[in-house]
Each structure stands twice: as C-alpha cells, then as structure tokens.
Amino acid sequence: xxxxxxTRLTSEPTLDEINDFFPLAPPTRPRTRPRRKIFLGAxxxxxxxxxxxxxxxxxxxxxxxxxxxxxxxxxxVDDDPSDDYKEEILPSSVDISLLSASSDCLEVYKNYDFExxxxxxxxxxCNRSEILGAISGFAITFIKGTAGSGKTTxxxxxxLDQHARFRKYCNIVVAQPLKIKAIHDAERVSQERNCGxxxxxxxxxVEFDKMTSxxxxxxxxxxxxxxxRLIAKKTLKEFTHIILDGVNERDQETDFAIFLIRKxxxxxxxxxxxxxxxxxxxxxxLSHYFNAQDPDIDTEIPVTHESISIDGGIRxxxxxxxxxxxxxxxxxxxxISNPEISDEAYAIAARLKFFLDKIEKYEEAKQTxxxxxxxxxxxxxxxxxxxxxxxxxxQMMEKRLYNERFKRKLQIIPLHSYTTSENLSDVxxxxxxxxxxxxxxxxxxISSFTVPDVKFVIDFCLKECKVWDADTNYQSLQFQWASxxxxxxxxxxxxxxxxxxxxxxxxxCFWEYRMPEDDEYREFExxxxxRIILYVKLLDLGAPTAVLSxxxxxxxxxxIERSILLLKEIGxxxxxxxxxxxxxxxxxVGRVLASLLIDMRLxxxxxxxxxxxxxxxxxxxxxxxxxxxFFATPYNQPMEAYKKKLFWAQGSFSDxxxxxxxxxxxxxCVDTQQFTRKSDEDAWGRKNFIQISRIHDVKYLVDELRxxxxxxxxxSDDQLHWSSENPQQCxxxxxxxxxxxxxxxxxxxxxxxxxLCVKEMSLLDPTNTVMFTxxxxxxxxLFKDSLLEATRQCGKQKAIFYDGCKAFIQFEDSxxxxxxxxxxxxxxxxxxxETKGKLEIFQSYAEKQPEPxxxxxxxxxxxxxxxxxxxxxxxxNPSDHARFPVEVxxxxxxxxxxxxxLLPRNIERLRNIGVTxxxxxxxxxxxxxxxxxxxxxxxxxxxxxxxxxxxxxxxVKPSVSVFFVDYGITSDNLQVDDLRQMPTSxxxxxxxxxxxxxxxxxxxxxxxxxxxRQFVHKILQNSTHMVxxxxxxxxxxxxxxxxxxxxxxxxxxxxxxKDYCYSTxxxxxxxxSHAAWETAESKGAFSDSxxxxxxxxxxxxxxxxxxxxxxxxxxxxxxxxxxxxxxFQANFKSIINLGGIRNININRNSINSxxxxxxxxxxxxxxxxxxxxxxxxxxxxxxxxxxxxxxNIPDLLPxxxxxxxxxxxxxxxxxxxxxxxxxxxxxxxxIQKRWHSMLPDHDIEVQFNTHFKIQDIxxxxxxxxxxxxxxxxxxxxxxxxxxxIHRTQKLAREKLLLLIQKKRDACDLTSFGSVYKWKQIDENxxxxxxxxxSRADRKDFYRLHDGILLNDFQA
Length: 1355
Fold this sequence. Notes:
Keywords: ATP-binding, Cytoplasm, Helicase, Hydrolase, Nucleotide-binding. The chain is α/β, with parallel strands linked by helices. The protein folds into 6 domains: 42-310, Rossmann fold; 317-521, Rossmann fold (3-Layer(aba) Sandwich), CATH 3.40.50.300; 557-744; 761-804 and 818-849 and 857-868 and 1097-1116, no CATH class; 883-1093, SH3 type barrels (Roll), CATH 2.30.30; 1196-1348, no CATH class. The chain contains 41 helices and 51 strands. The strands form 14 sheets. An 8-stranded mixed sheet has the order 6-5-7-4-8-9-3-10, with helices on both faces. A hairpin with a 5-residue loop joins strand 43 (1167-1175) and strand 44 (1181-1189). The longest helix has 29 residues, at 343-371.
C-alpha cells in the first residue's frame, strides 16, 4: 500500500515556500576586535602545553600598557550582558598582578582616605594580622567566625588598606548567596569608610542591579553573578582576591562556585588569592578537596592553604525550653519523623511575646535590688528574634500577632529572602518609643545579618529545605529539624551587650538527644540541577555526569540524569539520543536561557512569545513571576484582595494575565503622569492591592530582560503591530504561548454530575447560590442573621433558603467583575473556606415554643427575601403567547441581550413611564443622600438627543454609575448634578428590561467575542432590532429563549452553522424550569408577572413560625460550620503519566484556588496550565502555582500536546482508518532491542474527541518549522530586520489560529491498546515529512512529525 502524493505532510507549506517568505542565509556579524576562544579540559591543555616536551609552554607576557588599552582600565571588563557566555576577553597569560606596575591603576589611592579607623570591638579586629598574613602567604584561606564577628565587612577592608599602603593594585570581590545581603553590606562598608556613595570605592553587582565604577576596588556580588562572570572569562584573573562568603549555606551556586574556583585556580589562575568564609564548616573536608588531584590537569604543584578561626567571645545567653513555660499553654507532642509547627506551638510563641514584659520587669527589679538603683538603659523593651522555617510560617505568626500589635505595642518586621532593601532598614532601626520590635525571620538572620539590639531569641528549631522528588521531577519545600550546630548559631544572634535569653520551643530532652548534630542537607545533592548543568555545558568541560562527580558534594547520578532530561524537554539541550541520553548538545535556546537568570520555563515563554508576536506581554509575565508577587493580600482584607485580583483577571481566570493587566494599568498611569507625587502612586497601590516597590522591581527586570534578549536579536514591536487586533484573539494566542512554555504542566478539570449537584442544591441554581451544611434540622431560620453576616462580603444577597439541615444563600447578579456564567459572589464564598476555615455561626433568634396543644410543623422547603425589595422585574409568564415579539435594546454578547417585551401591557407601561418623566421631572438629587441601589432619573443620549430615563445607582464614588432599568444599558462617569429624583409614581412600576439568553448554544471560545457579537448585531440590524422569542425557561430572572428574526430565521441555528457557537445541553436547573413552565402553560395556572417566581412550587415563603425574640451572640447556640460552597466546585488532576495518582492543591493566592465548573453540560473539560509545580512533604499532593485556565475549545489539550511536545507518536484505531490519539514526551531509546521511554513520568497519552486529520499534522509541522527557524539557531535570526521578524510572527499567528479555530467533527473516544508505550507503529506505515537535515526540522528542538498511512484516505 502506498500513499498518494497529496498525503505528504509538507504539501502546505513547503520548505521552499517558507524560504521564499524570508531569507534563511545566516548573516555575517563584524567583530570590533579579535578574540581567542579558550577551551578548558583537554582542549585547553593542548594549547597550554608544548606537545614535544610535554611541559608547560612559556607564557606570553604582553605589554601592560597595551593590555590596558585593549581590555579596559585596571584590567577590568565591563559586565555587559552581551559578553556573557562568549569567548574569553582577558588573555589567560596576562597576570592581573602585573597591573600594579601601571601608575594609572594606582591613581585611585590618591582620591580616597585609607587611614581608616576599624571597630576594635569586633572579634575580627583581634585576628587582623593573622588574617592578612595568611592571605599573603597562602593561596587559599579558610576563615570561620560567628555571626556578627565582622568577617564579611572587615576582611575586604583589611586587604584593601594593606594594598593601598604598599601601593599595590587590588580588585576584591565578595560573593554571597543573597542579593539583599550583598547590597546591604556594600552600603554598610561604604558608609563606614565614608568614601562616598555606593558605586565608587565600594560597589555591588547583583542580578539586574549594578553599582560600580572604574574606582571600585571592593565589589559585593551574588554568587550567581560571580559564576556567570567566571564562566564568561574562564579565568579568575579578573580579580586579585575572591572571597566566597556563606560557604556553610551549601546552596547549589555556592557549591558549584567552589568547584569552579578550584578548577580555574589550578588551571590558569594560581596568582589569585581565594578566601572562603563561613560561620561553620569542616576545614578538613575543604582542605582535602582543594588538595585532591584533578584528573584533567597535569600538575603536581600542591595548593597551599591556611585555616583561621575567629573567636566570637563569651556570650551571656540563658537557654530555656518549652517545659519552662507551663503557664503559656499545653505542651504539644514532638516527633522526629514529623517536623512541623503545631497550633499549640504557635499559641505558646504568641503568648510568650506578651509575657516578655513580665520577664523584663522581674529582671529590672532584681537588678535594682542588687545594685541599689535601676540601670537607665534597661527600661527599653528588648527586641525579639523569632526563627521560623519559611515564609508561610512567618505569615502565619504575623497573622496571630496582627490584632494585638497596637494593644501590646509590637512592631512586627518580617525578614526573609524577599525582603526589599527599603524594608531591611526597619530591621536595624530602633523601634518607636515604648514599642517592642518583633523580627520574624528565616535562617537569613544567621548567615546574612546581625541585629544589634536582640535580647530574646525564640527558636522553633525547624528549617525549610528544597528537595527534588524522584518520581515527578518536581521540587518541593520540606521542613526538617535544624541541627544542634544551627541552634547554637541562632542563639549567638542575640546581642553580646545584653543579658539575653533563648527560648527553644521543644523539650530539652528532645533537643539534646533527638536533634541531629550537624546539617546533613546539601542543595547540590537533593535539588534539580538544570542551571548548574547549563553552566557545565557553557564551560565545555565534558559530560555533566563526569564534571559534577568532582564537586565538593557530588550529586546523585539519578538527579543529574533527570535534570538533563528536563533540559531536553524544555529545549535547552538537544533531544537527539546518539548514545548521549545523559548528555546533549547545548542548543541556542539553552544559551539564551542561561543568560536570562530566570526560571527555565519562563525563559522559554519569552522565546515562544517572540515567535508568536507577544514578546512584550511575555516579558511582563516572566518578570512578574520571577519576583515576589506584587499583589498585596493584607491579613485583615483577604476577601477584598481576592476580589481585586478577579477584577484584574478580567474574566481570563489567569494569574499571569491578572499580573499583566495590573502592570499595564500602572504603566499607563506612569506614562500619562497621573502620579504627580509619590503619595498618589502609593494611594493607587493601596486602592488596587498592589505593592508599589515590587511593581517597580518588575519594571526594572522587564527592561533588563529586554536588553539581554536584544543581544540575540530577539526583539519585537508586537504592541505596535498587534494593538489593532481583536483583544480576545490576542489573549487566546498568549494563553497558547503560555501553555507551550509550561508544557507538560497541564491539568484537567474533574467531571461532575450536574444532576446530582443540582439535587444536592435542592434544585437551586449553583451558579448564583451557595450552601451551608451541618445545621441542626429545622433550626436554620434561627441562625439567619449570622448566616447572612458570614457571606455579606461576598456579594449582594437576594434570598435565603432553608431545607432541613441545609441553608442556601442566593446572590444578585453583578456585572462589576467578569467571572463568566458563575456569579462573582459564588467565587468569593468559596474563598471563605481558605481565609477562615471553619465559620463560627451564632443563633440569632430564640426558638419559639408552640402553644399548648398546637404543633409547629414547618414545611421542608422555605425561603425568605434578605430584605423587602421595593423593586420588581417584568418577566414573561405562561399565560403569555408561546412566542411573542421583543425589541432588543442592548446586545451583551452573541448569546445574550437585554430587551423589552412588546406585548400590549408592556408597550403601554413604557409609554406611561416616558410621559411621566417628561411631565413630572423632579429636582436634583442630594449628594449626601445618594447611595447604591437608589432609583433615580439619569440622562442618556440615544443619538436623538439627551433624555432622562429610570436608572438604578450602581456606584457612587469616585463618579456615579447607573443601570437603566428599562433598557439594560449602563452609564459611567456621571456627576451627581446630572441626576434627578424619581417621581414617586414610577418607583413601584416593574423594571421593563429583561435579560435574555439563547437556548442550547455557547460561543466558541476560539472565535473572538467581538467578532461573534458583531455578526449577531448585523442580524439584528437587518431585523430592525425587532425579534420573536419562544421561552424555554426562566432561571434567576434570565429568560432562556429560541430567537427568530422578523423573517423567521432561527438565530440559534445560524450561529452554529456559521461556526460562531456550538450546541450544548441546557443546565439541569434550566431543564427543571422548562418542565415547570410547560406544566403551568398547559394548565394556564398563572397570569401575573411574578409567575416565574412561583414555578418551583416546592419553596414556601417562611412565616416565622418557630422564630422567637432576637438573641445576643452569647445567649444562643454556637455552631462551627464549614464555609459555604457551590456544588459546581471542581478539582483538577494532572495529565502526565504519574500525575494521576496525586492530589492537586492550587496555591491559595491563585485566582483558580476556587475552581468552579462554568458549564458542566457542555461536555468540554476545562484545561489548566501552571508555571510552577511542587510536591508536598508526604509526596501525595502536587502543589500548583501561577495558574491559567485555557479556553473551552474541543480537543484543545491534544492539539497543544502534539504542537509543543518534543516527540510525538500518533495512535490509530485497530482498523487503521483514523487518528485516535498520540503519545507525547521525550521519545524512547533502545536497549537490547527493547524500547524504553526517555522520561516516562512526563509522558502524556491523549485521545482525540474530534476527527484529527493529516491536514492538521501539516499545519502543526508548519508551526514547528517556524519555531525551529525563529529560535532554533542564533545564526538564523542574528541579522533579521524588524520587518522580517514581523512577517514571521504574522505567519505563525495565522497558522496557530488556523489550527485552533478549525471546526472538527466530533467522534467517539477510542482507547489504544498499549498506552504509554513507544514504537507501536509499523515503520512501513509511517509517512515521512521529508524535510530532514534542514534548519526547519531541528531534531534538537522541535522535530517534525511523521504521519501514519490510513486505509481510508478520506478520514
């Protein structure tokens, strides 16, 4: 069987067509100066050794003056991002010590005062001579000293002053893990030396922030920045002294920096002095490591080193344990296998902070009795340093203290790695008079900062560690017991000048006998190594497994293997096997990702954003996700913060798009100069729950990322090109790009049984109603006030229903926040579960006792309005004609609109309303009395002049907004002076505007909403906005109808035929209403306008039969109930191979932490994508962050997997007549004639629910070709002009929309026999794509798909 010529997968578009579309020839890039590429390992050894004598070759000593002229003053090279990861700039043969011969290099010593007075109270000062002697006499020096001994700030100054005294050149770098610490130390040393602002003699260089100059001789860096500079230069000789601080932290970058410094030192940088400093480390282990023979370097010269320990002096600290605090609460149980903070421990810690006043008063009294007088300095309240394992625990502790902070005069200051430089000053500042400073800190206070006024230390004896999960390849933050050594370091954080106390919140026996002696945690051994492996590949040292085996603490081989596979999945390493499963060539994508300093998947988001023309938006999203979230969530306003986040999402249900919209709004205010003062910007931030300092950080990062990408010619003016396109279409493309970047972090919403859900809700509508359970049977009316108060902040309440032990709160519709078909109040009610947990519900009324001989029998289904609503709405009733005319007054969307019934009674009412307004227009409204829900007369210009109409006030400040109740139109930005009082005779007239919805159809989310709406608008124009409707049901005052034009055209069907909508079943509530409507219609039972409220005759209005007098909260019964919920709330499950066996927990700060099935009857499962995934401590739950819900498009999930998976193998049915699915992943490798999955845990088996054809593979291959050409090679895009970039993006967007918006016929799901198994297709049935060995088919990035020959070609 042979395939006809038209089945070739490249029939559209061909590679020749793409070549004709834009040039593929790589341009030539002129170089400004010659550079020599330096290779390490064997290649470097070949260059440095004479092959004849097998001895080191004679070094070439270049003239110092010419060197300075060629490579910059003082031999320093500007850290330009464009030079990252390129050839070595400073020749390895030039020793930086030779630069001391140049007088220009020493000129800096004349500009500053080097007669510096050191702080003699610091322990480091006593060891000054010993430290300088060791550094001068030995190549490597180990310095160990306690926190606060002055290592980080004093040792660099000792070295600088010594070199200034002897007129010798120096360039000192101090590297440490934390950015905030580096900036703080630079500012402190600069201030201490009085040498001008930071950036002159003393500077810093951290991620995305740099303050240095040609005068800088001490540079504080983060370890990551130092690593990138060493990788770029492949030598240490840029510096004279490299000080690596915080070695005991043993984070990944520090461990790799130790390895790289050792490697380069032995290779070509023996003249550089290396100093390793820490509060505690094993000197013997480090000595053996630096003396170990490197197999890649032929040298027998030993490395000389010296160790120095700085005595921190004797601290007067008294240890206390939890059994010493019996009066503060019950002692919790402690288990070595269960490291956690119990509620009892939190409570004891909170009470202990309040108890410290008594302790201080006792100490003062004791001191007075001994000395005869009170020490004047003891009256101040000592600061408290509380050690907590992680940020979440800091927030929990802060929440417990929040309400008492003013009463107890507490100044609460969080201290963690996300603390900004501005907030850091609060840690060291004196508290306000009479206040006690409470510092809630992670271990950052041990290694990074010394707070001088700490008198009390409270230690939970826990720490937070990153751990890699071997099953899922995801990282998690787990809690472990801190070691004894760590506990001692925490105690030493107390001030030496005060009589300090340490409270360890665990038993003394547990501390002494159960706690580990030393820290066993090493990030290098237990965390994912993607960035470290990229560093190894950039250095070209060899296979990562071999290189990393020479680290100080070599990582596990499985960890290296999985990290390599994850890099291949992202596209940073080649996916071509070639016997290199545990290795791979570095791709262009990998080089770009290594230069961006952000998470790998966020870097890929930028690459795909460039391809599809949304780079500007992706830059904002990537920067916002790389920084601490700038959305504020105050402890006392969690619901308001969540509501504002829903507002920023604008119906997208995306954390990423919410961040983007908020950033764009802030940026617009800045650009239009709306913030005339800083206070204006701060006020805007408070109003919109945005932290201004953090959004500024995002702005800086956006600019930095844009600059770094521009060096690779990755740039795009997409806002200019695509601003005129449909916003919904641009949002769809952006969501698809996010899905491609975050692949395979896909989740599928669980299926819910709509019938059971509605039954559980007692036939009420789950889209606008929430349910309380657990109330004593028949007693729910007695708790009415408390139930309403618990949900008042969710939204405007309409009615409360009682059914046995359940109570239901029904909310009014709101258009302020777009949450789809579900009311925003339902989402906010679901959020109550997270913010409050259990709700305390108090009995509001006493139970009324029946009279003797009378039994109070309440009906099972009762309701009562929340308040006596003085307004009513005109609704159709079964006595009206089955089909009646309607005038459309306002089109909401393609499937919903506002209109007026054109029945005689309605026409007469509208006429009377108009006449009354014209003849009895009243006086102006009193601004002081105007409130929301007031009925007024408001002006509206309908094109024929301004007229007044009845309107309901929906907003008062800062401007007035109204809803015209007879026409369904809203108007904003009105002034109070524009309004008029409502004539009394019109207040009781029902609202004439009715909201209609088209029956049985929903808009296709792949089509822009505005486009669909415009199509319906044209139909209505042709029908002069006069239509006929047939009522199907009435649910929550929305009339569901079949819509017909004047010419009897069935609009519902037209929208389906024209691919603007798809057919779907009506909801269960709508079907029940339809059945009740038909019954009433057949009986002719109702004739009044409120009949729709009576159609469900099971509900009876509550008459207060068992409700007595009102009670105070302390008098009645108290219940602890779960927060209310909608039965449409749904969970998610992961679609990767091993994801299905784990629960999914969406981060509580995510918009989708409350997930509700918008339309369970549609049959389309909602897909969620997440940028970050972790694992909980027990490996049972996946923790999902930064989520986005994708549009409900048929077969969107398999399309995304086939489009963005590295390797895809299609599935066909047993008869080989159609495609039924695909296996997506990294592919397979062969061992002994058996195929094994490369990364089985991340394999995804998808099934097609529609007819997927070979033409779809053609379009997908075209998109993969465009991605390969655009970001598969730096040479391909290096010379592209903006015009070529724009044309490429336009083609990519067109092809993507063609793939996503294509209408495909539905088909039954068919299972494939051997799931999650590769190589199941006979090679004779494979249709090759025939574009091999070209830049369009990059097998190291997105390899093109082969098709399968089908028996039925038409399928």
